[in-house]
Design goal:
Layout lengths: L16 E2 L13 E2 L2 E4 L12 E2 L4 E7 L2 E11 L5 H17 L6 E2 L2 E6 L6 E5 L5 E2 L6 H22 L1 E2 L8 E4 L4 E4 L6 E2 L5 H4 L19 H17 L9 H4 L17 E4 L2 E4 L1 H11 L8 H13 L5 H7 L4 H12 L12
Parallel strand pairs: 1-8, 7-13
Antiparallel strand pairs: 2-3, 3-5, 4-5, 5-6, 6-9, 8-9, 10-12, 11-14, 12-13, 15-16
Helix pairs in contact: 1-2, 2-4, 2-9, 4-7, 7-8
The chain binds adenosine-5'-diphosphate and magnesium ion (MG).
């Protein structure tokens, strides 16, 4: 039974605990870190892997030195990331955690942020999310729960907090099939929509293969989210061998395109005055097209169409008329899409 904290217990971080953060090389395994001991061999990191190196830092599994059962994640962030950004990341994470307290879906609660005054490095102490990223086909019952919780975390972030996570992808969504529980992690990219500094962050947000191929100028920041969610769902619907090969390598990096040059979703995009093929879009369109020829698997066929609708590539009536889905299914998908700002209908394939 997971203990849910009350609203009162959540307070925004306004400062850091000062600590000397040990050097991560050659290895922190077995070393003490504040009240914690860094441990290895956890199943969440896989055999023989003693840390997970993300783009922004090093992630370790640790235990409270005085209580082996009390495990935490320690994310060590290098000195080039500013303290104010780390505070924003942690406060976003805890706010989402708080808003999701009555749901099965969650975010990892952050307990502490440390700062090393000498090196300017920070370390975040947070709860361990149980499970692993979903990159292979889930069974039907699990898929529905996974999808609903994914939509719930995004909708919660967007509606209760006016935030976009801006890095939705399987690696940042830890799923426990046993508990049917989804945990959103890695708020390093999350920003309040329409904030002025969003433009300056444009180069860094999102991950290749998950970046909506239009409007990276944030006129529709929430569309950025629903597109990434749709692609994430594709990974839960299909065997890896069925996913277009090297999809992320095909992704044109549209983040460098100028605002005025970004057109509507389509197979071609204007960049630097030239029409460039949008490889990601072409690959996904081709992939989703196969849905038409595979009518003997009703579930997969419908779910593909749903992902396509979520990605803004299929019109609502085509989605609904294809295989009459349950009303609550349509509602939860629509709810997310309704959050798309600007009231314009989601972009469509021309
Ligand atoms: N709270 C957590 N619980 C379980 N695993 C985690 C947690 N935080 C991070 N991880 C693991 O570490 C990896 C990198 O962490 P992440 O916060 O995504 O860093 P980055 O910003 O570098 O991508 C994740 O993909 C996940 O596998
Ligand atoms: Mg990550």
């Amino acid at each position: 039974m997971v203990r849910r904290i009350s609203t009162k217990e959540i307070s925004n971080f306004t400062g850091f605990e000062k600590i000397s953060i040990p050097n991560i090389t050659p290895s922190l395994i077995g070393k003490n870190f504040a009240d914690y001991t860094i441990i290895s061999g956890s199943e969440i990191f896989g055999e023989g892997k003693d840390n997970l190196n993300g783009t922004n830092g090093h992630v370790y599994l640790a235990q409270l030195t005085s209580d082996a059962k009390n495990q935490v994640i320690i994310k060590i962030i290098p000195s080039n990331i500013k303290g104010e950004d780390i505070m924003r990341e942690c406060n976003a994470q805890n706010t989402i955690f708080e808003h999701l307290s009555s749901s099965n879906a969650s975010a990892s609660k952050v307990h502490k942020i440390f700062e090393d005054p000498k090196s300017n490095c920070h370390a975040i102490i947070m709860d361990v999310a149980k499970g692993s990223p979903v990159k292979t086909k889930l069974d039907e019952a699990s898929y529905s729960k996974y999808k609903n919780q994914l939509i719930e975390v995004l909708t919660t972030a967007l509606s209760r907090y006016d935030k976009s996570h801006f890095d939705i992808k399987p690696d940042n969504l830890i799923w426990s099939d046993e508990d049917r529980k989804l945990t959103l992690i890695d708020f390093g990219n999350s920003y309040t929509n329409n904030s002025t500094d969003l433009q300056s962050k444009i180069q860094n947000i999102g991950s290749k293969g998950f970046i909506a191929p239009i409007l990276t100028n944030f006129q529709h920041p929430n569309y950025f989210e629903s597109f990434a969610a749709a692609i994430t769902l594709a990974y839960a619907l299909f065997d890896p061998k069925d996913i277009p090969e090297n999809i992320s390598d095909k992704s044109n990096d549209l983040r460098n395109a100028k605002e005025t040059e970004l057109g509507l979703i389509g197979k071609n995009t204007q960049i630097d005055g030239k029409s460039k093929t949008n490889d990601t879009m072409v690959a996904w369109l081709e992939f989703f097209e196969t849905v038409k020829s595979d009518s003997n698997d009703q579930f997969t066929t419908f779910q593909k169409k749903e992902a396509l609708y979520l990605a803004g590539l299929l019109k609502r009536d085509e989605y609904i008329n294809s295989i009459s889905p349950a009303t609550d299914t349509i509602m939860s998908t629509d709810e997310l899409l309704n959050r798309i700002k600007g009231a314009q209908s989601p972009p469509r394939t021309p």
